[in-house]
Amino acid sequence: MIILNYSTFFTMIISFAIWIFAVIEWVNYYKLQLSYSLNPVVLLKYIIQRKLRKSRIANEIDNSFDFETYGETLEEAHKNFKTKIVDGQKTEFVPYGKPGIPPKNSKFSLVNYPSKLGEMPMYITAKENNGKKYPAIIYLNAGFGGIGDSEFGWDEESPKNNYQGTDAFKRDDFVLAIPSARGENANPGKYEMFYGEIEDLEEARKYVASLPYVDPNRIYLLGIVQAGQKQSY
């Protein structure tokens, strides 16, 4: 974003020229290709003949939607979409192994939630079943590998080089759930890069919603880095 500066006439001209250049570049990259030759006559010829082509990025955006989602929810579109997961794929992501048992003073419990592939671990701050319904936050931690025992602000000894701020949500008026997904920890399945993991996330939500102390109408989702991508899907 460029703000025009009117302090002097010269500065205003320079600012306006930069702004015009930025607009032209935006059109060139995201709308219509404007760069064909160093000779400006070539561009003028394309404009007069109305032969300007779509930019490469514009074409990629248009071709990225290979199924129709209008008139259906994201959940319906996900169920209707068919893909083929490649067997024997190599990955640099190493599962963390079985998650650690949280300390007694952490407010966390280690539970398993049911999924289509089998049970998967989840950290959760439990509440007394006193008839009160609490809002819940499903927190998706960054990276791949699953839920470890050093990322969730259990105590003052938590490493500062991987602090993700999870402890900010360990409040009396919230239930905090941190689920793992397929291929992570010692879970069944393999990494599908935000495809099948979405089904695991939905099963985790159903599990949290079924708890007697959780208000199923007040469940919120939070994710950072790679987990933010999963959240966006």
Description:
- This protein has helices spanning 9-30, 40-48, 56-63, 74-80, 196-210, 226-232, and strands spanning 108-113, 120-125, 134-140, 175-179, 214-223.
- The relative contact order is 0.13.
- It has 233 residues and is an alpha/beta fold.
Tell me how many strands there are.
5
Question: For the residues shown, what is the average pLDDT?
Answer: 81
Order of helices and strands: HHHHEEEEHEH
Q: What characteristic shape results from the CA principal axes?
A: elongated
Number of helices: 6
Largest sheet: 5 strands, mixed
User: Biggest sheet: strands side by side, in what order?
Assistant: 1-2-4-3-5
- Tell me what portion of residues adopts beta-strand conformation: 5-15%
